[in-house]
Amino acid sequence: MRLMSGGQIDTVMQEDRLFPPSAEFSGASVIGSMAVYEALYAEAKANPEKFWGDLAREELHWFKPFTKTLSWKSPNAEWFADGTTNVSYNCLDAHLSTHRRNKAAILWEGEPGDTRTLTYQQLHHEVCKFANVLKSLGLEKGDVATIYMPMVPELAIAMLACARIGVVHSVVFGGFSAEAIADRNNDARAKLVITADGGWRRGKLLTLKATVDEALAKSPTVKHCVVYERAGNKPAMTAGRDLWWHEQMAQVNANCPAPELESETSLFILYTSGSTGKPKGIRHTAAGYNLYVKKTFQWVFDYRDNDIYWCTADCGWITGHSYIVYGPLSAGATSLMYEGAPNWPAEDRFWEIIEKYRVNILYTAPTAIRAFIKWGDHHVDKHDLSSLRLLGSVGEGINPEAWMWYYNKIGGGRCPIVDTWWQTETGGIMMSPLPGAIATKPGSCTKPLPGIIPTILDENCQPVPQGQGGMLCMSHPWPGMLRGIWGDDERYRLQYWSRVPGQYLTGDNARQDKDGYYWIMGRIDDVINVSGHRLSTIEVESALVSHPLVAEAAAVGRPDDLKGQAVAVFVTLKGGEATEALRAELKAHVRKEIGALAVPDEIRFTNTLPKTRSGKIMRRLLRDIAAGKETLQDTSTLEDYTVLAKIRSDEE
Ligand code: PRX
């Protein structure tokens, strides 16, 4: 093993370079050495219930203390079940009697450059009022509200107001289509949609309310739509159904004491892609999730009371839920929230924001880092980034080149990088360096957090020898784990707990190196990772075959320098001409069915799809073709590949 303090790009593919934290960094960290980490890990492993029980008593406010930490009847976990708490209380009220009362909870910067600051006291005030608005509309504990908003503070306010009174929020990312919103409304039986008139993205106005109107035409369970005025674009308002946020807020007071809610009260659902065409509503509950995101936020980001912390994710994804809203706020942090694109008005917007707010901790995604590299160092060089102390990465593996650039160019060679591996389902970070303790290796998420016990198993569910790849599973429940798929217990069991009896199947492959470091090797299913976002190939295929001219479609991921993976599709037609116009039409169709994030990067028309003897599409062959590993000059000759396909069919 070699120790290095500065990276050299020509050696990036060497996996064993090790970057230990500086003595200065470790010295100021709570978990400041390998010995402290190992002791904590051993303690959690030896007696997980005591470990989590003690933490829960210390970290959360209990109206009624719990007496039982965990009830585990695989695959159903209940944490702290007989206690009562309130997530919104833990995020807000708990700070009001401390020195944090007047501390900035949210620092917000709009894309056009407008700014707002909300202290804990102010945020509490707004959340209490909006919770009263929800009550005035008849929403009660257990009801579902869909939130489809730009990245404005009101998005966090809406989430926390729901949490306060036990309304289950389902945040739908602003890039999803009307169809996708309607599907989610119907699956969750949402009673309310909270949206905005519009939002700003790369200088363009996104007309969110108009999209919601289209969705509501197909969402019979939704009774009301509350509209926050962000853009002033004066959308149509349907009398009796649509209500302005500011008008509703003017009619309520701010008196809304946090009610006692049972630990296992549903907190939110978040839809994510699985290996089938239908997104699943991942369900998280109050206390366990709250504890897990608070502790992991403190451990991984080594948060210190004066730090300015910036997570660049959107609240439409789990990263925004856990590490913009619930984790940082329950830890009493200052969380910066930015509305817009990284390249608006120019490619240095992130660096400008870091300089302006003196950001100490930056948490972003590899796809963004690759874009920054492409845009050029001169954008970075214009700004003073010396406030940065710690860097984070999430969403997909970070390739060593990007890691080195992030480390040297953004971190000035002094900031540890926490490469955090986790999932919508896990609620919070599962594997990551603890920055004051664990030396990092470019491309590895290093070690599991305390209380997390990963296993790597072969096809027969046996542990693989160290160094070999296999299915990444978790052998023990943890407080932040999903509690189910909304309305589909059987799918929950089948998807996560049946392949390896008694263990949680992550869906990722991984291997452990000789130092016990973990390396994520990609998915074992038909899920692809486009710009850090999960997409099911089957979802894209279903969208395509719903077009009247498409007979069959096969979607595969292919490597892409910026996005990580891009979507390539092979399409056979029932009629019509294989023209550029049809290609554009099919792209528009997928945009309408799912949203911009699913639009294929490449559409190839073909007369036939290569299939195995049993009729399964040979995805591996198509992946190779899409990646250019199998040369195919003219797509019409894909037929020739069916011969090859037949020969190789046993491999699939
Ligand atoms: O394949 C892994 C990849 O993203 C998947 C989870 O996606 P999602 O639920 O959308 O959550 C993304 C944000 C937590 C994982 O199964 N993934 C996420 N983080 C990493 C990663 N792959 C490698 N390294 C990571 N740090």
UniProtKB/TrEMBL annotation:
Modification type N6-acetyllysine: residues: K616
GO biological process: acetyl-CoA biosynthetic process from acetate
Binding-site residues, Mg(2+): V545, H547, V550
Key word Transmembrane present: no
Domain AMP-dependent synthetase/ligase: 100-486
Annotated Pfam families: ACAS_N (PF16177), AMP-binding (PF00501), AMP-binding_C (PF13193)
Database matches in InterPro entries: Ac_CoA_lig (IPR011904), ACAS_N (IPR032387), AMP-bd_C (IPR025110), AMP-bd_C_sf (IPR045851), AMP-binding_CS (IPR020845), AMP-dep_synth/lig_dom (IPR000873), ANL_N_sf (IPR042099)
AMP-binding enzyme C-terminal domain boundaries: 539-616
PTM notes: Acetylated. Deacetylation by the SIR2-homolog deacetylase activates the enzyme.
Acetyl-coenzyme A synthetase N-terminal domain segment(s): 37-91
Keywords attached to this entry: Acetylation, ATP-binding, Ligase, Magnesium, Metal-binding, Nucleotide-binding
GO molecular function, one term: metal ion binding
EC number: 6.2.1.1
Leading EC class: ligase
A single Gene Ontology CC term: cytosol
Domain of life: Bacteria
Cofactor(s) of this protein: Mg(2+)
Positions that bind CoA: R201, R202, G203, K204, T319, N343, S531, R591
Keyword Ligase: yes
Protein family according to the UniProt entry: Belongs to the ATP-dependent AMP-binding enzyme family.
Cross-referenced PANTHER family: ACETYL-COENZYME A SYNTHETASE (PTHR24095), ACETYL-COENZYME A SYNTHETASE 1 (PTHR24095:SF14)
Role: Catalyzes the conversion of acetate into acetyl-CoA (AcCoA), an essential intermediate at the junction of anabolic and catabolic pathways. AcsA undergoes a two-step reaction. In the first half reaction, AcsA combines acetate with ATP to form acetyl-adenylate (AcAMP) intermediate. In the second half reaction, it can then transfer the acetyl group from AcAMP to the sulfhydryl group of CoA, forming the product AcCoA.
Protein name: Acetyl-coenzyme A synthetase
Species, as recorded: Pirellula staleyi (strain ATCC 27377 / DSM 6068 / ICPB 4128)
